[in-house]
Amino acid sequence: MNEEELIKSAQTGDMQAFSQLVKQYSPVVERFAIQMGNRVDDIDDITQEVFIRVYRFIHQFSQAKFTTWLYKITLNVTRDFARKKTGHLKRILSLQKEPQEQPAYTEHFILRNEQDRKLHECIQRLDEKYRVPIILYYFHDRKYDEIAEILNQNLSTVKTRLLRGKEMLKKQLERMEGKEGESIG
Question: Which of 101, 129, 154, 167 has the fewest CB atoms within 10 Å of its CB?
Answer without folding.
Answer: 101
